[in-house]
């Protein structure tokens, strides 16, 4: 496979664009960051004319695939009417209504442009609501790149951004004891910005309970991914999130579920809808916009009221703009069609793909684990028989997987170099078959 145009454009891009990419993660793709020329459904085409079945899906947002006709039409129509006004408009209201109907914990929502911004707002709301400042977060989770929360490096592609960093905290290498303090995730980040962050191991009820009981007078919130998608797609232990809910409710601490990945991916109600949980606040982004910049915080009236009464400032020039809200409405509409049939289909296809991957690993005697929940999964090469903790995740052979992803690219399958796969509503049986055949060839070439 030739990457001549990608190589040429990457070199030229570096003359004008710092590092040649717009998000540091993208540098990790081997043999080089590929230049896209276009996408359609489940496939993306690069500037050399190579076509790939896409499981990167823009790091998650493309739940409907590339250039979905209904979504594209809605966005074009909105743009033609005026992309943004800085005034209120109907789309904003309609998206907010749809979000409150879809997300069980959301009496009201506030709109912003990225997952990072939604998390920033959720933390601010929690602090204002409780009058406390400390935040508990968990090792291996990722909540965006804001200075006040960016601490750890769940995957090697994120670590890349930290070269030159002092005292770095590497995935799997830190065995954060209960209450370890957070280290900056990048050079240029003030350690003081993280002074209120407490990092705990996840899925550890005892560590959570002990820290909450000892320090609840200072703790504003616990923030958690409902499934540890950023480090191994590890599911919560049975009862863990429920216990988190009980303890935070008892001790007056705000529970925030960061559903930037799981929202509109594990179902219309996100993970909390699927698991039957009611956090105080939820953040959604990525899949919500189907590839356009929209995110939201949803929560109970008592907390969201702090924005309404002016206690908490929620700002952003492009918040709730016409294009973003049209994208959100269209995405939710498409996903809701046929009583959520798209989720059932995506999940069935994903299960089939995962079964095929496991069979192939077993057939060629390669040790590996695939953790799946709904249309998202993490594949890793590891001697561990199960990966249910951040420590176990740290034992995977990340280099081997990156090589595998490179071989898959050669075979026409686009993967994130760290192992997280997304399946979209545009994928079809034939894509799954073709992917598994490509994998047969890639595994045969992967050194034992
Ligand atoms: N929260 C989670 C769980 C994420 O996975 C991400 C991004 O990967 C974010 C927040 C940040 O979202 P964004 O990249 O849109 O700022």
UniProtKB/TrEMBL annotation:
PROSITE patterns: AA_TRANSFER_CLASS_3 (PS00600). GO terms for biological process: porphyrin-containing compound biosynthetic process. It comes from the Bacteria. Residues 157-169 have a biased composition (Polar residues). Pathway: Porphyrin-containing compound metabolism; protoporphyrin-IX biosynthesis; 5-aminolevulinate from L-glutamyl-tRNA(Glu): step 2/2. GO terms for molecular function: glutamate-1-semialdehyde 2,1-aminomutase activity; pyridoxal phosphate binding; transaminase activity. Keywords: Cytoplasm, Isomerase, Porphyrin biosynthesis, Pyridoxal phosphate. Residues 171-182 have a biased composition (Low complexity). The keyword Cytoplasm applies. CDD domains: OAT_like. Gene3D superfamilies: Aspartate Aminotransferase, domain 1 (3.90.1150.10), Type I PLP-dependent aspartate aminotransferase-like (Major domain) (3.40.640.10). Its cofactor is pyridoxal 5'-phosphate. PANTHER family: GLUTAMATE-1-SEMIALDEHYDE 2,1-AMINOMUTASE (PTHR43713), GLUTAMATE-1-SEMIALDEHYDE 2,1-AMINOMUTASE 1, CHLOROPLASTIC-RELATED (PTHR43713:SF3). This is glutamate-1-semialdehyde 2,1-aminomutase. It comes from Paenibacillus sabuli.
């Amino acid at each position: 496979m030739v990457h001549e145009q990608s190589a040429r454009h990457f070199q030229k891009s570096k003359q004008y664009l710092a590092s040649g990419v717009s998000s540091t993660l993208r540098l990790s793709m081997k043999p080089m960051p590929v230049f896209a020329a276009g996408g359609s459904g489940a496939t993306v085409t690069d500037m050399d004319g190579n076509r790939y079945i896409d499981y990167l899906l823009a790091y998650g947002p493309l739940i409907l695939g590339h250039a979905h006709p209904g979504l594209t039409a809605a966005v074009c129509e909105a743009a033609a009417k005026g992309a943004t006004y800085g005034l209120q408009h109907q789309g904003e209201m309609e998206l907010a209504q749809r979000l409150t109907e879809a997300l069980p914990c959301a009496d009201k929502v506030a709109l912003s442009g990225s997952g990072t911004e939604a998390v920033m707002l959720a933390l601010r709301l929690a602090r204002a609501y409780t009058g406390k400042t400390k935040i508990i977060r968990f090792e291996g989770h990722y909540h965006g790149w804001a200075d006040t929360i960016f601490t750890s490096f769940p995957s090697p592609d994120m670590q890349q951004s930290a070269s030159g960093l002092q005292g770095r905290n590497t995935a799997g290498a830190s065995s954060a004891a209960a209450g370890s303090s957070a280290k900056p995730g990048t050079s240029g980040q003030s350690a003081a910005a993280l002074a209120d962050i407490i990092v705990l191991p996840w899925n550890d009820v005892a560590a959570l309970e002990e820290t909450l009981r000892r320090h609840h007078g200072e703790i504003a919130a616990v923030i958690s991914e409902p499934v540890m998608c950023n480090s191994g797609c590890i599911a919560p232990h049975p009862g863990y999130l429920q216990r988190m809910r009980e303890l935070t409710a008892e001790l007056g601490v705000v529970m925030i579920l960061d559903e930037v990945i799981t929202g509109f991916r594990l179902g219309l109600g996100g993970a909390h809808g699927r698991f039957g949980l009611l956090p105080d606040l939820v953040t959604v982004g990525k899949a919500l916009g189907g590839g356009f910049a929209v995110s939201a915080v949803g929560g109970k009236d008592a907390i969201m009221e702090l924005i309404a009464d002016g206690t908490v400032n929620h700002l952003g020039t492009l918040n709730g703009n016409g294009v973003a809200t049209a994208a959100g409405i269209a995405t939710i509409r498409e996903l809701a069609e046929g009583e959520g049939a798209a989720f059932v289909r995506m999940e069935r296809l994903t299960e089939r793909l995962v079964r095929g991957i496991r069979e192939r690993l077993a057939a060629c005697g390669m040790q590996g684990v695939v953790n799946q929940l709904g249309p998202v999964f993490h594949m890793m090469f590891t001697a561990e028989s199960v990966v249910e903790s951040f420590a176990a995740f740290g034992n995977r052979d990340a280099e081997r997987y990156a090589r595998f992803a490179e071989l898959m690219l050669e075979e026409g399958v686009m993967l994130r170099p760290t192992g997280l796969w997304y399946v979209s509503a545009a994928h079809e049986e034939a894509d799954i078959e073709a992917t598994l055949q490509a994998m047969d060839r890639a595994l045969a070439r992967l050194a034992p």
